[in-house]
Structures are given as structure tokens and as C-alpha cells.
Write a structure and sequence with these properties.
It is a single chain. It is built from twelve helices and eleven strands. By secondary structure, the protein is of the alpha+beta class. The strands form two sheets. It has a seven-stranded mixed beta sheet with strand order 6-8-5-9-7-10-11. A hairpin with a 5-residue loop joins strand 10 and strand 11. Helix 4 crosses helix 11. Bound molecules: adenosine-5'-diphosphate and magnesium ion. The site of adenosine-5'-diphosphate has 13 residues, from helix 1, strand 2 and strand 3. The site of adenosine-5'-diphosphate (ADP) has 13 residues, from helix 1, strand 2 and strand 3.
Length: 359
């Protein structure tokens, strides 16, 4: 099939929200009065961001989801997208499933595909997402204020845990894997939350590189610090069980010794740069892995945001209305950097748990 037949068959749908959609040299788009365009691009490369044999429906979903997540983090309403796709050959069953996954999520969020580019090459997927937001209400990274509460949506670390299982770093039971795999394969962009936080959140970011790294971007941009309670971090039952070696250190070792043992992998499994994670061998290794997933695992695409403590009840109400758990995980403080405390109030050394400030 020709390139044009392919575009017509798999990537052309009605675009009533565009002045002109797919088919000409450029799309024509009209932004609503009082709004500005929010534009963001994310590329997914085979072998780097997904395995070449990934389920094409889920891949279509995720390709758009990671872009929608950026709109959510800006408090923008996503309207349009373009798709640049390179693929080795026109594999029609693959294209059918990929476009079905992409359009299913697009429809769910009222997003129209208005253009793109199609070329032969190693599998590579690049979406540019375009949304609208009144400029004063955009949720930027530089707005966090001392005294703000820090919030996180959903649960942290499940996507990283599922990936660790697929890569053989940990062996999960079938039910455990089934519980965390959706976070990795079909993340849900928190669009409704981003919109609801307009005028309430002082700052926001989506968690694509891990809580500490992404919260770190807010702290850097806002020139503030943060204090996080490890026990307040929202995690799944599986991760909570795995991290028990850390949360409830064995009395034999005492609190600090037990924690350190959980964080320091045995020397023979130590890697380069970041601590090696447990390879399914004992609670200490799994505790390290769990910490890494929770604090520096990426790919969950939850939102991390800050808001004045006076807006606490409003934020809670938003969570209830959306049916989306929102957890207050800490506070913005004067100074720089991020401190994480365990339940006893002792500082957790986040560097030995795989967090690299200079990554
Ligand atoms: P040009 O040669 O002007 O770049 P193309 O032949 O690349 O145009 O594309 C023709 C039309 O199809 C354009 O409107 C373009 O935006 C659209 N298009 C190309 N590839 C895709 C794609 N993968 N998804 C959506 N639209 C696409
Ligand atoms: Mg082109």
C-alpha cells in the first residue's frame, strides 16, 4: 500500500475541532478566546522506551498517554495531536492495532489527530500534543511556595516494579504482576486532575522520571526545598510488602542498621553508578528494589503538585470527585534539596537508594 493509502486508512479520522486536519501541507487550528497553545513533544524509540515486540494496541495508547500527561501537568486541555512515525515496513495488522489503541485514548480525551509524518525506518513514534490553557492558570514548575503541601496522585512505583519483573530483577507472582503491569503498559494521563487544579495548585509536574527527580525539577525551578514522609507515599500492596524490610527493620539489626542493610545491596551484586537492585534474593535486595521503584522509578505518569495548606480540603474534594486518590506526601520548605524521613522521623539517605542528584 502507498504511504497515502496508509495514512488515509489508519491515521485519518474526522477532526471537527480543527479548521483543517490531515491531508494538506499543514493543519489549521483555532485556539479558544483567552487561551494560549500548550505544546509538547515526546518520542518513543524501540529498544529504549519499549520492546520492539510490544503489544501494538498498548503501544498506541502509551504513545499518546505520555504526551497527554504533559498536558495534564500544565493544567492544559488537550485538543490536537500530530504523529510522526518511522517503521521498517507497512505491517497492516500492527498498524490496525496501534492506531486503534491511539485513537481509543484520543477519543476518551477529545483529542484529534490533525497531521504527522510517515516514513520508513527503525520503529520510532513521536507525538506532538497541542492543548489550550488560559496563560495565568497554567500549572508551571516554578510556582511552589514555602509552606505548600506536596501531593501525589494515584500510586508510585508500580510501573518500575512491572519493568523490573520483565527484566528479571525481581520475580513477582502472577497476581502481583497483573496488578502492577497496567501502570507500565497503559498509564492513565491525569487530564481531569490537571484541569481541576487550575487556580489551586501553585506548581505541578508529571512523574515520568521518578518522584525525586521530577519533584526535584519543581524545587529547582521554584528555588525551594522539600520534606517528604516516606510513610505517606502512596504505594500498592505489592510494593508495600516488598519495602517492609525497610519500613519494619528487623529488631536484631536495630532501626538504622536494618534500614542500611536493606538499602545496601550485598557487594557481589553491586553495580556501577547506582546500587544494584535485588535479584529476587532475599528481603534486603527486594527492599532496595522497592525503595528505588517508589522514590526514583519512572513511567507512572502520576501528577506531583504543590498547593497552599489552606487549599487542603479543596484538593481532597477534587480527589473524591474524580475517584482518584490524592496523597499529601510532604511540605515545601525554605532552602534547597529534598529530605525524605522514615516513620520514626529519621532521614532516609536517598543517594544510597539509587537517587543520583546529577543524573
Ligand atoms: P508533506 O509531503 O507535505 O509533508 P505528507 O505526505 O508527509 O505531506 O503527509 C500528507 C498528509 O498526511 C499531511 O497532512 C500530514 O500531516 C498527514 N500525515 C502524514 N503522516 C501522518 C500520520 N502518521 N498521522 C497523521 N497524519 C499524517
Ligand atoms: Mg511529510
Amino acid at each position: 500500500m502507498s504511504e497515502f493509502d496508509l495514512i488515509r486508512r489508519y491515521f485519518t479520522r474526522a477532526t471537527p475541532g480543527a479548521v483543517l486536519g490531515v491531508g494538506d501541507d499543514a493543519a489549521l487550528l483555532q485556539v479558544g478566546a483567552g487561551n494560549v497553545l500548550a505544546v509538547s513533544t515526546d518520542m518513543l524509540v524501540a529498544g529504549t522506551h519499549f520492546l520492539p515486540d510490544a503489544d501494538p494496541f498498548l503501544l498506541g495508547h502509551k504513545t499518546l498517554a505520555v504526551n497527554l500527561s504533559d498536558m495534564a501537568a500544565m493544567g492544559a486541555k488537550p485538543r490536537w495531536a500530530t504523529l510522526a512515525i518511522a517503521m521498517p515496513e507497512a505491517d497492516e495488522p500492527w498498524l490496525e492495532r496501534f492506531s486503534a489503541g491511539l485513537f481509543a485514548l484520543a477519543q476518551q480525551h477529545g483529542v484529534e489527530l490533525v497531521g504527522g509524518d510517515t516514513t520508513r525506518g527503525p520503529l520510532n513514534l513521536c507525538v506532538t500534543i497541542l492543548g489550550e490553557v488560559p496563560p495565568q492558570q497554567a500549572l508551571c514548575r516554578d510556582g511552589a511556595q514555602v509552606g505548600d503541601e506536596i501531593w501525589v496522585s494515584g500510586q508510585l512505583g508500580d510501573a518500575a516494579l512491572a519493568l523490573a519483573h520483565l527484566q528479571g530483577e525481581v520475580v513477582l507472582g502472577a497476581e502481583q504482576f497483573a496488578a502492577c503491569a497496567p501502570a507500565l503498559h497503559s498509564p492513565q494521563p491525569r487530564i481531569a486532575l490537571g484541569l481541576a487544579l487550575r487556580g489551586i495548585a501553585h506548581s505541578a509536574i508529571d512523574i515520568s522520571d521518578g518522584l525525586l527527580a521530577d519533584l526535584g525539577h519543581i524545587l529547582d525551578a521554584s528555588q525551594v526545598g522539600a520534606e517528604i514522609g516516606f510513610g505517606a507515599l502512596p504505594v500498592s500492596d505489592t510494593l508495600s510488602t516488598l519495602s517492609r524490610a525497610v519500613a519494619h527493620p528487623s529488631p536484631v539489626n536495630g532501626t538504622r542498621a536494618g534500614f542500611r542493610e536493606a538499602c545496601f545491596p550485598p557487594p557481589e551484586s553491586a553495580g556501577h553508578g547506582r546500587p544494584a537492585v535485588g535479584r529476587g534474593a532475599g528481603a534486603g535486595g527486594e527492599g532496595t528494589l522497592a525503595l528505588r521503584c517508589i522514590l526514583s522509578g519512572g513511567d507512572d505518569y502520576e501528577l506531583c503538585f504543590t498547593a497552599a495548606a489552606t487549599r487542603h480540603d479543596e484538593v481532597m474534594r477534587i480527589g473524591a470527585q474524580l475517584g482518584l486518590p490524592l496523597a499529601r506526601i510532604g511540605r515545601i520548605v525554605a532552602g534547597r534539596g529534598c529530605a525524605v524521613h522514615d516513620a520514626a522521623g529519621d532521614p532516609i539517605d536517598i543517594e544510597i537508594c539509587g537517587y543520583d542528584h546529577f543524573r
